Amino acid sequence: MEHVLLVGATSQLGRALLEVLLGREVRVRALVRRRPEVPLPSVVEVVHGDLMVPSTLPAACRGMEGVISIAGAPLLPWWTPPSLTFDRIDHLGTRALALAAKADGVRRFVYLSVAGDYPSGLEYVDAHRRGEQAIAATGLETLVVRATGFHGTLAPLVDLARTGVLPVPGSGKVRTNPIAERDLANILADQLAAPPGTTAVGGPEVLTRREIAERAFEAIGRPPRIVSPPTGLMRLGSRFLDLVNPRLADIGSFVAHLHDHDGIAPCVGTIPLLESFREYARGPSAAAGSTPPASPGVEEGA
How far apart are CA 137 and CA 157, in angstroms? Predict the structure, then answer.
């Protein structure tokens, strides 16, 4: 595939994916909402648009053979307008992009989603599942990559470890296998030549939540000091937040679930979490794109 639209190119994952695509001599057009603070490579065609403004999407899709969307609503718990919901971006925004792609004759759509089997009612996951269904309903060749958490999303644990104490909600025994952005970038690029379908992927090592926290301390050379608040407090807080900002409430419910249930996908990739934590601890100059993204799918959605 020679010409691809990438949505979410300014995130840590997006920049890793750009490097992989350009290395494979794929021509890339990037859809961005605003000018990125760090310019994208000069060979990348940049167009401005917004998943929440469907009228901006047909021009971005024009002439493309494929679309890769790693964009989504931010998962980290900062305050945003209540209208910036997971449904509006991860579902309706993805649907608008898929419809624009189909109308312009795009053949293939690669979509980054969330790995794991979850009960209904976790809006972060439900919105992604609706997004998956919306793409498939257009008749596009649909390739869904469901990933576990990203190393970059977990990297702020290193900053918390520097404060001296790191909270790990729940028992700390729940397991997961987060994946490095560089490993995930290669998997996403591979989908351009793969048969349609859904693939679940995680990192090469399965760790408990406590072991993840211990690696944050190890990255800065300090002995671990961990406290274990009950996840019930997070759920209670989410109920109160639901009255003022449903998105933050949805994040709290999702994170509480993660700390009470295993989230393991097939182990792929080669980069261990400690390596990523050490790169982050050394600062932005240690590795390209070491600033963590705002969500498992994106830093700032298009």
Answer: 39
d(CA 207, CA 26): 35
For residue 268 the two structure tokens come to: 């792929």
**CA dihedral (221, 223, 180, 44) positive or negative:** negative
Q: How far apart are CA 114 and CA 150, in angstroms?
A: 11
Q: Is 7 helix (H, G, I), strand (E, B) or coil?
A: strand
Output the tens digit of pLDDT for each of the chain's 302 residues.
689 999 999 999 999 999 999 999 999 999 999 888 889 999 999 999 999 999 999 999 999 999 999 999 888 766 667 677 899 999 999 999 999 999 999 999 999 999 999 999 999 999 999 999 999 999 999 999 999 999 999 999 999 999 999 999 999 999 999 999 999 999 999 999 999 999 999 999 999 999 999 999 999 999 999 999 999 888 888 887 777 777 788 888 999 999 999 999 999 999 999 999 999 999 864 444 343 333 344 433 33
For 188, the token pair is 């996403």
- Nearest Cα neighbor of 134 from 182, 73, 69, 81 is 69
Q: What is the pTM of this model?
A: 0.91
Residue with tokens 């900053």: 159
Short-list 30, 59, 26, 258, CA closest to 149: 258
CA–CA separation, 280 and 154 (whole Å): 10
DSSP state of 186: H
